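Handoff note, outgoing to incoming analyst
You'll be picking up this chain. Sequence as last confirmed:
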Amino acid sequence: MTGMALFLSLPSVAQKRLTLNEIKAAEKKNQVEQAQDVAEGTVPQTGKPAANTPAPVNVPLTCSWDKTDHDFGTSILHQKPASTTFTMTNNGTVPVTITEVTTSCGCTSRKFSKEPIKPGETGTVSLEYDAKITGFFTKSAIVKLNDGQKYVLTIKGEVQKVEG
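Most recent structure output, in case you need it:
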C-alpha cells in the first residue's frame, strides 16, 4: 500500500495536519536524540549499549572551538551548497588527532584536519550542506578525537527557492 493510500485509509481523526513549527520541532528533537545516541554509544530505540561498545568514559575536554553552531540564516539558494569551517584549539598538554567526523545526514559532507594537532595549535572541520531541498534544516556532526573526546557541531538555515 502506498503512503498516500495508507494515509487516506486512516480514520479522519488520525489524519492530523502538522504545522511547519511542529515539523521543525520534531526534526530538531530527532537530530538531538540521534547525536546523543552516537555520543553515548547507545543504539537508537533500545537505549542499550551497542554490541562491543565500551561504556562511555568521562574524558576531559581539552579543546575549544571558535563556534559549535553556525546559522546560515536565509542566505542559501536552492541547489547552491553552503559551507562553513569550525576551528578547534588544542588547550591540552599532548597532541590530539581528529579520527572521525560523522554527519547526521548524507546531505552534509565534511572535511577535517588529519594531522595531529599539537598543544596550542588549531585544526579545522568544514561542513557543507548540499541545499537540494528548500526549507528549514538543522544538521549535526559528531567529531571524535583519538583520546576519546567527542564534540557536536551544528549547522542550520533555510534554503530559498530560486524563482525563474
